Amino acid sequence: MILAMAVGFGATAKQNRKTKKKKKEQPSSIVSVTMHRTACFGRCPDYTIEIDHNGNVTYTGIRFVDDSGVYTKNIGRAKAITFINQLASYKVDTCREMYETRIPDLPGINYEIKYTNKVQKIITANGGPAYLSEMATAMDDVGKKNDDKAWKKVEPAKKK
Asked: Whole-prediction pTM value?
């Protein structure tokens, strides 16, 4: 009986290792992430940064920014996938749609996460899990224009 249990446990442990490997190798179902920093009652920058799974980054400066307009660059698929997988590891799909704030003048940080089969929106300013702020900082780092010559100004997409 003990031998049967040991063999059964060994087979289960081996199966668990295989399952863990498969989970690690599966790509995230996140297709793109968009962060929109909203304006406040003052001169807070209002812009969006979108990163897709192919490495395309789009920065749209709306107001109170140095560079208004739409700019694009490619950071490479590997870097984008690393970023998106990090986001998926935070279990962002479990976030609420809105985290309210009691300070009306704080600029908001709104996310739109596109999956292969759905779109998730998260609206926040200073609430919610800490990783939402970490994600905003990471997206700002990717979206910094500075003197990066890789950015190309493009015409904004026409709304239908």
From this structure: 0.79
Over residues 34-83, the pLDDT tens digits come to 999 999 988 999 999 999 999 999 999 999 999 899 999 999 999 999 99
Question: Is 62 exposed, middle or buried, given 0-12, 13-18 or 19+ CB atoms closer than 10 A?
Answer: middle
Of 28, 26, 74, the closest CA to residue 51 belongs to 74
Domains and CATH numbers, the chain: 30-145 (3.30.1560.10)
In whole angstroms, what is the distance from residue 46 CA to residue 104 CA? 16
Residue 135, burial from CB neighbour count under 10 angstroms (0-12, 13-18, 19+): buried
